[in-house]
Amino acid sequence: MNDRSQSLYRILVSAAASDQEAAVLLAERTRQRGQGQDRIARSLAHAGALRQDLRERGAAEIIHALMSPEVYQLLVTSRGWRPERYERWLTQTLIDHLLPR
């Protein structure tokens, strides 16, 4: 998803600094992204799949941060990672931080 929307996201972030409509659109996109990521955390929590020391809210915060467009941009765009490498890294990092060992 980040691969397809990265350019649009960068433009929207830039425009949001000076355009109210762009700022509203960015806030809505961020809210929707957060809702989707919260559903992942909720699903893991309800399935009893989270680490014992991690609650749903903490899992949602970890997911939100790691799956952010900013982290994607940092690693893929700025550091030159291939999207496949990012996907493998993200998958393993989420597993390491959310699921029991």
Structural features:
mainly alpha, 101 residues, BetI-type transcriptional repressor C-terminal domain-containing protein, 0% strand, Tet_transcr_reg_TetR-rel_C_sf, flat
Description:
The protein is mainly α and 101 residues long. It has one domain (2-98). It has five helices and no strands. The mean pLDDT is 91.
What's the count of strands? 0
Structural class, judged by helices and strands?
mainly alpha
Unreliable stretches = none
Beta strand %: under 5%
Largest sheet: none
The radius of gyration computed from the alpha-carbon positions, rounded to a whole number of angstroms, is 15 Å
Number of helices: 5
Kindly report the average pLDDT value: 91
Q: How widely separated are the two ends?
A: 28 Å
Tally of distinct domains: 1
Specify the overall morphology. flat
SSE ordering: HHHHH
Q: Could you estimate the helical fraction of the residues in percent?
A: over 70%
Organism: Kribbella speibonae
InterPro entries: Tet_transcr_reg_TetR-rel_C_sf (IPR036271)
Protein name: BetI-type transcriptional repressor C-terminal domain-containing protein
